[in-house]
Specification:
alpha/beta; eight-stranded mixed β-sheet; globular
Length: 306
């Protein structure tokens, strides 16, 4: 059964990575539900093409394409600053964009390991910088995309940037676990401070997008298709179904503070949306708050006062 988004008329949503895959489908579905959508994309040209495609299904949609490179903290700051100029409250932030398993260690503009920087530090900084506008909404929400691979991730505080040892999927797992911990900590802070903000987490199971091909082919002279380490026999699904845990986390009144949602089917890879069990890797005492403190220092961003 397809998840039906409640009426989003009058709400402003910011979606990262909205030019393709799950991000584009989330933008399309939210626009069809009446939301105004800021499509935060690294390539404005690809963002414009995605916008044109969405408008074919939702000709009355209000979609704005804005440039954002999560691998460049100056781009994150510029994006947040430009959004703040209008002074409008943001109702929903969807941290979706990411990169998966480059074969060799690569770095962001700021010198961070590419996956840790793009998948976690960029969204972390963006969330902090947009919190004043989010808290201007009556019922703001931040929905963060994690991954089932977070279950095998570990936060290597002594080597967060994978300098001593780089493993494509090890670094990916760490970055997606970090996303999960960020969302959990944000929800805890919101409750402690009495903010009306809800922080949720989703994973898409095994959804067929370009995530499985773009990352593993970065830096290669010849493209090599390597979905999930080369295994192709796992159950998989299209973006229309794969986006539903994220949409549930982003819009459902039933989504809870710190709730984690994913497919209920075979091995958590496919199927209708259901609550997912937080992995053991996320349950360390003070793990989320410790990582948050480190990320504040690395990004130079902090929570707003209050």
């Amino acid at each position: 059964m397809t998840y039906t988004i409640s009426d989003q008329t009058g709400r402003l949503a910011v979606i990262t990575g909205a030019n393709s895959g799950l991000g584009k489908e989330a933008a399309r579905r939210l626009a069809l539900a009446g939301a105004e959508v800021v499509m935060a994309v690294r390539s404005p040209e690809r963002g414009a093409a995605a916008r044109a495609e969405i408008l074919k299904d939702a000709p009355n949609a209000v979609l704005e394409v804005r440039q954002l490179d999560l691998a460049d903290l100056s781009s994150v700051r510029a994006f947040a600053h430009d959004l703040a100029v209008g002074g409008r409250a943001i109702d929903l932030l969807v941290n979706n964009a990411g990169v998966m398993a480059p074969p060799k260690r690569m770095t962001t503009v700021d010198g961070f390991e590419l996956q840790f920087g793009s998948n976690f530090l960029g969204p972390f900084a963006l969330t902090n910088l947009l919190l004043p506008q989010l808290l201007g909404s009556r019922a703001p929400r931040v929905a963060t995309m994690s991954s089932g691979v977070a279950a095998i991730g570990h936060i290597q505080f002594d080597d967060l940037q994978s300098v001593r040892r780089y493993s494509p999927y090890g670094a990916y797992g760490q970055s997606k676990l970090a996303d999960m911990l960020m969302a959990l900590r944000l929800g805890a802070v919101a409750d402690e401070r009495g903010w009306p903000l809800t922080s949720t987490i989703a994973h898409p199971g095994y959804t067929r997008t370009n995530l499985q091909t773009v990352g593993p082919n970065l830096g290669r002279a010849r493209p090599k298709w390597r979905p999930l380490g080369g295994r192709t026999i796992a159950p998989s699904q299209g973006v229309e179904m794969g986006v539903e845990p994220l949409l549930f986390a982003a819009t459902s009144p039933a989504a809870k503070q710190g709730g984690y949602y994913g497919p209920r089917g075979a091995f958590g890879l496919v199927g209708e949306t259901a609550p997912a069990k937080l992995p053991r890797s996320s349950r360390g005492v003070d793990l989320a708050s410790s990582l948050w403190s480190v990320a504040e220092k690395l990004t130079g961003t902090t929570l707003p006062p209050g």
